[in-house]
Amino acid sequence: MSNREIAGHLRELYGVVVSPDLMSEVIDAVLDKLGAWQSLPPEPVRTFVSFDTARVTSCCEGLARNKTVPMTLGVMHDGGKENRGLRLK
């Protein structure tokens, strides 16, 4: 897709007006980050991955609400645990 096509999709889907020049800058920055990420060494092997949830209380517009936060945990060979991701709904 061209920068103008991407800018058109953003305008159509989200009502956001972005110039093709800004799209070009953003795409270049993302490609730079992607290149750096791809050159990282492989992550250590995990024995297994666990999926769990936690209940948290959050405040929004003065109201306290309980929310469930799905989590992904990786368990390493040495028994250590690593948070692989959280998703707030």
Number of strands: 3
Q: List the total number of helices.
A: 2
Largest sheet: 3 strands, antiparallel
Helix content: 25-40%
The chain-level structural class is: alpha+beta
**Can you tell me the overall shape?**
flat
What is the number of independent domains? 2
Radius of gyration (Å) = 20 Å
From N to C, what is the helix and strand string?
A: HHEEE
Oligomer: single chain
Give the end-to-end Cα distance, rounded to a whole number of Å: 31 Å
Query: Low-confidence stretches at least 5 residues in length (pLDDT < 50)?
Result: none
Could you report the average pLDDT, rounded to the nearest whole number? 81
Strand content: 35-45%
Biggest sheet: strands side by side, in what order? 1-2-3
Describe the structure.
The chain has 89 residues and is of the alpha+beta class. It folds into 2 domains: 3-38, no CATH class; 46-86. It contains 2 helices and 3 strands; from the N terminus they run ααβββ. The chain has helices at residues 3-14, 20-38, and strands spanning 46-60, 63-76, 81-86. A 3-stranded antiparallel sheet has the order 1-2-3, with no helix packed on it. A hairpin with a 2-residue loop joins β1 (46-60) and β2. α1 packs across α2. The mean pLDDT is 81.
